[in-house]
Design brief:
The protein is α+β, with helices and mostly antiparallel strands. It contains 15 helices and twelve strands. The strands form three sheets. The chain has a seven-stranded antiparallel sheet, with helices on both faces. 55% of the residues are buried.
């Protein structure tokens, strides 16, 4: 039985509802997901299927968008400087030849410390402070600054330690005080206990035989860069899909992968970043958005083993996922299929969540058709 579509769309966005309904009709009967969008600070899409309106999901690496927004605010304030060496803030990071790396390079996934030789425990993965301590002593897996590769499980801890050293506050605390609380965002880096009943545990991927064969064919030795980056070289290898289902991970909210959110929370954060929302000024000035959305690392990602591009932390979403979006679009996807971004040219903020882990990981394929429908309607306003 096809899931019923709930929620509302503004005038002119009826086509988005139709596109969402068409997608859901072709999905499994147990599909759960949410779609939300803002244009120039006004909510124009608020849809969901198979769940409650206020359900919360693990959003995996879409969490990184919140981390990079914190850094962007601190750069805008003058608290952080992009071209200072990381060691100016965090002297211990100089170990093993990492002393010349700048904050700009760290954000652009050029540090080379995608993991450690022996991997991490679950307790370490859940705690950015512990991760940072381990990573400070780690020998980089390539000469820092000479290549780039996705720092999948650790980038939030790396920039978080810089934030902590510069401000005396954790990245999660700065996010809570300056972003989540003022805008009432349903996007948590550390899920408060009263919200636990709203959390919907991530369901595992259920690939078709053809998809399973494609996954099995991937190079996956325990000491490849990809395995190190995703902690598959640890004595107890990480099952990525299960991370948000761990209470410790939800409670601590590690800034790389530990966020819990609704689509409303994801879209609302990016709306606040670029637009006036509820009579509050945008969090970021236009020049800051441009700086963080510029290409910084483009080409062969040595971890993903594919063409990728990054701005300052954020994925350059128009290049990575959706070429119809405006240049300088900033955002991030999550392994389960979530995606969120801000297109400053269209004044558009987009958020999508789903419960079941999508194939092949990263932004779920349906984001292409959903984001394009939202973008088309936004431009027609």
């Amino acid at each position: 039985m096809t899931q019923e579509i709930h929620g509302t769309v503004a005038d002119g966005f009826e086509g988005v509802r139709e596109e969402f309904a068409a997608f859901v009709a072709g999905e499994r009967p147990d599909y759960e997901g949410q779609l939300c969008a803002y244009v120039h600070g006004r909510k124009v899409v608020d849809l969901w299927a198979g769940t409650e309106a206020d359900a919360l999901y693990g959003v995996f690496s879409s969490t990184k968008g919140a981390a990079y927004l914190v850094v962007a605010l601190l750069v805008q304030d003058g608290t952080l400087e992009l071209d200072r060496k990381v060691t100016y803030y965090w002297p211990e990071f100089a170990a093993e030849g990492k002393g010349a790396l700048t904050l700009r390079d760290l954000l652009a996934h050029r540090a080379g410390v995608v993991g450690t030789d022996t991997g991490f425990t679950l307790a370490e993965l859940a705690d950015d402070r512990q991760l940072a301590e381990r990573l400070a002593d780690q020998r980089p897996f390539w000469r820092p600054g000479t290549a780039f590769g996705y720092h999948a499980l650790v980038s939030g801890a790396l920039v978080g330690e810089v934030v902590r050293r510069a401000t005396g506050r954790t990245l999660q605390e700065v996010y809570q005080e300056r972003i989540r609380t003022p805008y009432g965002l349903d996007f948590h880096l550390g899920l408060p206990a009263p919200h636990e009943p709203r959390f919907r545990p991530t369901q595992p991927m259920e690939p078709t035989p053809e998809q399973r064969a494609a996954l099995d064919a991937l190079p996956d030795g325990p000491h490849t860069l990809a395995s190190i980056a995703f902690n598959r070289n640890a004595p107890d290898p990480t099952d990525l899909a299960s991370l948000p289902n761990m209470p410790l991970v939800r409670a601590k909210g590690p800034a790389s992968v530990g966020g819990v959110a609704s689509a409303r929370g994801l879209a609302g954060m990016y709306a606040a970043a670029i637009s006036e929302v509820g009579q509050q000024a945008p969090l970021l000035k236009p020049d800051t958005v441009v700086e963080f959305g510029q290409f910084h690392s483009v080409g062969y990602d040595v971890v993903a083993r594919a063409h990728k591009s990054f701005g300052l932390g954020f994925q350059t979403t128009a290049d990575t996922w959706h070429p119809f979006l405006g240049a300088g679009t900033i955002g991030h996807s999550g392994a389960s299929g979530s995606q969120a971004f801000a297109d400053p040219w269209a004044g558009l903020a987009y958020g999508y969540t789903r419960r079941r882990f999508a194939f092949p990981g990263g932004a779920a394929p349906e984001n292409g058709r959903l984001a394009q429908a939202v973008h088309k309607a936004a431009l027609a306003l």
